[in-house]
Design goal:
176 residues; 29% helix; two-stranded antiparallel ribbon; 10 strands
Length: 176
């Protein structure tokens, strides 16, 4: 049975914005290993479009960036969107009945499935489908932007904390 996990980098004041802060080499390696270990990922349209950057090699990439790209390309992806007509390699478009599709993935897939995108995560939270939340706090205050929780925060129970690198702390919660 799969576990559905929502985790993202965020500022101390709770905003996600991949352009405002980047992972240090230790955290980046953590993300590479995380992606390698996934049974797959579920994306909302906007986050999937951001992540499509990894579909094609870029000559300026370091070996670490290439490692992430390879890991990302190899994992199955399910993209929740009513506006997209097609998706890239190793991806399946989910246009309708998201609850049934995610429920089927939970029962048929073994391992961890990552959810990416706050709005999609909120929809799955409302349906009771997320098993774990991982908040990677960076020592940055943005004061604006897209919040990690796109709606009301669910009742949560802290189960773990971990310092990653020199300045990022991951807090892991499960539904209370």
């Amino acid at each position: 049975m799969a576990r559905i996990v929502f985790g993202m980098n965020l500022s101390l004041d709770g905003y996600v914005d991949h352009q405002e802060f980047a992972p240090d080499p230790i955290l980046f390696r953590h993300w590479v290993e995380h992606v390698r270990g996934l049974a797959g990922s579920v994306y909302g349209r906007r986050m999937y479009e951001v992540m499509r950057y990894w579909d094609e090699d870029h000559p300026e990439w370091t070996p670490e960036l290439r490692d992430f790209a390879v890991a990302w390309r190899e994992q199955p992806k399910w993209v929740v969107s009513r506006s997209l007509k097609s998706v890239g390699p190793n991806a399946t478009l989910v246009a309708d009945d998201v609850a049934a599709v995610i429920g089927r993935l939970k029962s048929e897939v073994v391992g961890e499935i990552s959810v990416s995108g706050p709005e999609l995560a909120q929809s799955l939270t409302d349906l009771g489908l997320i098993d774990e939340y991982r908040l990677y706090f960076h020592p940055v205050v943005l004061g604006r932007g897209k919040p990690f929780f796109a709606g009301s925060r669910p009742a949560l129970r802290l189960v773990a904390s971990e310092l990653i690198g020199t300045d990022v702390i991951r807090l892991t919660y499960v539904p209370a």
